[in-house]
Amino acid sequence: MGIASEVFGDALPVAERYAAFLGTAGVERGLIGPREVDRLWERHLINCAVVSAAVPPDARVVDIGSGAGLPGIVLAIVRPDLRITLLEPLLRRTTFLTECVEMLDLGNVEVLRARAEEVAGRLSMDVATARAVAPLERLAKWALPLLRPGGELLALKGERAAAELDEAGPVLKQHGVRGTELLQVGRGMVDPPTTLVRVIAGGGEDGGRRRRAPRRAKGSRKRSS
């Protein structure tokens, strides 16, 4: 809990309430496996919280296939400056997410029941996040239409991150992305560190919303599109 306190700071009590809800209602409703309860903090909450290092200040974030709220709710807890939309098509999951948002009093979060394809053209977000939703090749097709020009997809990936990025090359080229990057965040806080694939959307200059970029995470590897 020492690392959790460092990561969440004054928001730790809110994170603790969320962890308790995940470990009870989340398991009962099939959103979290029973074996995950003992490792909720390291494998799920802290693993997601460190993603905040890669998110610009005051960003509008859409969490695609939010499920139990990972990473969307965690980001909302640790970064109250963010405005987060939890995008989830299944009713039982949106019900769970709505209960979480109300219980934790997260005024910077909205829950939207829809598929990404259904809201393409309606959303123009700064950042899209996704965890364990789909291979990057498919995820990019869903996420990029939800981003403003110059917006970023931050996909939480495992050991196949580099391979998925290579496999998604043709799709990313088709969508005219500006660049891609592999990042590792949370070194020293989670083992292994959280691996992100960052994809920068193409389009106009930047949609009129210039933002101060966060410091590049240690261990990042940049690629050109």
TrEMBL record:
Compartments in which it is found: Cytoplasm
Bias (Basic residues): 209-225
Main enzyme class: transferase
The protein's Enzyme Commission number: 2.1.1.-
Domain of life: Bacteria
GO molecular function: rRNA (guanine-N7-)-methyltransferase activity
Database matches in Gene3D superfamilies: Vaccinia Virus protein VP39
Amino acids binding S-adenosyl-L-methionine: G65, L70, A116, E117, R131
Its job: Specifically methylates the N7 position of a guanine in 16S rRNA.
NCBIfam families per record: rsmG_gidB
Protein name per its UniProtKB record: Ribosomal RNA small subunit methyltransferase G
Organism: Actinomadura syzygii
